[in-house]
């Protein structure tokens, strides 16, 4: 059994985007830093290795040029033509829009005002972006990480290890240690050699939420969530949240909502970075729904598929699917979708059916045929005049009238065979509940209303930003921003 304590000035629990940015920030201050990663080395990186975007403020091509290093001027101009800018006001309004004005204003202010500075800082520290193009490009992000999240994480580790970071793999944090004054002094962890104490002058918890813990999902999210498939790694079981609450840290934010999106019916229980990389980064995401109608097994629509751009709706659409009979839904399109090139490339591997009549498609998918045919006909008849425009950066206003639920945008009739249907279920990525932190320092707060000395948080551990929904790439951006802040403050506290 391991027993002799290992010491670092700053100790970080977790190894995803938030943890890595925290480590980069710590190392700028010339203090020692260690990182505890629950996963094996081949599956390091958490959910961050499975993603690809950061949503940040930019004011034009000059802000993108340092990020997209290998793009031509023509490519850069095409990005700006699609989305000329995203101002601080745009970002603030967007988050408040998707959270129904429930985002913590102090946290949001930091998230918005620091996003541009943070991505520039990441570029200076080895990160790289490429244009986000094609139907598979998600939502409203003009650039994505080079190599996706997996590539991003590998670049983090290369830089961090060169600068002296020590990574401890297969190491699960168990509890926080404190001195007699209540200052956090380290972590007790389960290592391959046994129980080990890691001491530090400051600790940063950046180890995700509780999405991979069925008991916590059922407790906080409600019935049915314990059996949901996880669009992420199996390692995020709420350890950091539990450890923090055990010493009196304040829970904060929306513990009853989460990021949940449409996934293929055959999505696995979990996804690990090594398997994702071997699959070429292909995903089980099924995000063509804004251009479709979605029906349940009763053949009935249940959501406004075109409420907003998909980057602002996909993270809540999974919840609507989970609420349907059997937790299953079907995305329905006709031949026009192929002609318009609306399908992302990963739909080549999607579970679905094709038929020349609606009745036949219903039989193939085991949908109530009579209700389904009626639903499609009523939908077609309800489409209002206007021009269909599947631009993911803009709403086209092509809506329906006189049916419930309404479709607000991207209403495309379903009348040209062959008809296609894709079976989908809810896939959960992370939970929105977390801990209360000081917005300017990322220092964790006690239920008694004071700061906890020596304890900081970043990433999904920070509660209060997201409520019910979020916009694509926002979580990665917030993780990087608060990782940088937590690293700086922890390093200063450790000096």
Give structural notes:
The chain is an alpha/beta fold and 495 residues long. Helix content is 30%, strand content 20%. It has helices at 17-27, 61-64, 73-82, 88-98, 105-124, 148-162, 214-221, 239-246, 273-278, 314-322, 335-339, 358-365, 369-382, 474-494; strands at 6-13, 33-36, 129-131, 143-145, 166-168, 172-178, 184-191, 194-205, 229-230, 251-252, 258-264, 293-295, 328-333, 352-355, 419-431, 434-435, 443-445, 451-457. The strands form four sheets. Strands 1, 2, 5, 6, 7, 8, 17 and 18 form an eight-stranded mixed β-sheet that branches. Strands 9, 11, 12, 13, 14 and 15 form a six-stranded mixed β-sheet that branches. Strands 3-4 form a two-stranded antiparallel sheet. It starts with 5 loop residues before the first strand and ends with a helix.
What are its keywords?
single chain, 495 residues, FAD/NAD(P)-binding domain, 2 domains, 14 helices, 30% helix
What is shown here, in short?
The protein is an alpha/beta fold and 495 residues long. The protein is built from 14 helices and 18 strands.
Report helical residue fraction. Answer: 25-40%
Number of strands: 18
Shape: globular
Query: What share of residues are in beta strands?
Result: 15-25%
Determine and state the CATH class of the largest domain.
Answer: Alpha Beta
Task: Tally the helices.
Answer: 14
The pLDDT mean sits at 95
Rg (CA only): 23 Å
Distance from N terminus to C terminus (CA atoms, Å) equals 32 Å
CATH evolutionary superfamily of the largest domain: FAD/NAD(P)-binding domain
Stretches where pLDDT is under 50 for at least 5 consecutive residues are none
Count of domain modules: 2
CATH architecture of the largest domain: 3-Layer(bba) Sandwich
Main β-sheet, in a few words?
8 strands, mixed
Q: Assign the CATH topology of the largest domain.
A: FAD/NAD(P)-binding domain
Q: What is the SS-derived class?
A: alpha/beta
